[in-house]
Amino acid sequence: DQQVKQNSPSLSVQEGRISILNCDYTNSMFDYFLWYKKYPAEGPTFLISISSIKDKNEDGRFTVFLNKSAKHLSLHIVPSQPGDSAVYFCAASARGGTSYGKLTFGQGTILTVHP
Amino acid sequence: KAGVTQTPRYLIKTRGQQVTLSCSPISGHRSVSWYQQTPGQGLQFLFEYFSETQRNKGNFPGRFSGRQFSNSRSEMNVSTLELGDSALYLCASSLAADVKETQYFGPGTRLLVL
Predict the structure, then answer these.
(1) B1 at the A interface (CB within 8 A)?
(2) Strand B19-24 relative to strand B74-78, pairing
(3) pLDDT for B59-101, tens place per residue?
(4) Nearest alpha-carbon partner for B53 in A73, A100, A1
(5) Beta B109-113 vs B87-94: how paired, if at all?
(6) B54: exposed, middle or buried (Cβ count in 10 Å: 0-12, 13-18, 19+)
(7) Chain A, nearest residue to B41 by Cα
(8) What value does the CA radius of gyration of chain B take, rounded to a whole number of Å?
């Protein structure tokens, strides 16, 4: 059962425009969410995170929005650059001792930014 | 600060063999988590170690094991390799007093089982 879902396998955006990547979750115990960027044959690179007590977090061109009632989060990249082209993973961790060190990942969205 | 390092980066083994992968966390980080990435299953949690103790384990068979040393370096071992164990194995480290902590990943070890 997939507790974190990224329903769009791919997204194509023009350079300079906004990229919006979406993620849905089902586990109400999740209370910390992260976005990672990944290139093939490399490890994921941390981009931005958000705690469940917030609904928005910004870091430069990256903003993450969390809608707890809808169990939905999104990553906005503005403006998009060709170097942003990669696979983006949404991940979540749950509260509780049995969740130590465990991130649950979505399947990823391939972002392509065209010059 | 140096990032998470993993050795070896690439490995080819045959069915039935065993393999040991190594991970050195970011200096000062005491938690190490291991993940398996495959095209079909995505990124799946294997286990987590903190202060030489396994605190959490994912849904993998007992052929997958790990340990952590006093300097926080970690190893994972896969015994009796199967074709389906071919994957990218990633480790991640965090300070880890809390579940609400960011994990930082290494470059991974690509394992091919023939």
Answers:
(1) no
(2) antiparallel
(3) 999 999 999 999 999 999 999 999 999 999 999 999 866 667 8
(4) A100
(5) antiparallel
(6) middle
(7) A107
(8) 13
Nearest by CB to A101, which of B6, B43, B96? B96
Closest by alpha carbon to B103, among B52, B60, B43? B43
**CA A19 to chain CA mean position, Å:** 12
At residue A97, the 3 state secondary structure works out as helix
- The whole-angstrom separation of Cα A60 and Cα B2 is 24
Beta-strand ranges (E) seen in B1-114 are 5-7, 10-13, 19-24, 31-38, 42-50, 53-57, 64-68, 74-78, 87-94, 104-105, 109-113
Which chain A residues have a beta carbon less than 8 Å from that of B90?
A: 43-44
- Residue range A68-92, pLDDT digits in tens: 999 999 999 999 999 999 999 999 9
Q: Select the residue of A41, A102, A107 nearest B56 (Cβ to Cβ).
A: A102
Q: Residue with structure tokens 């403006």? A: A79
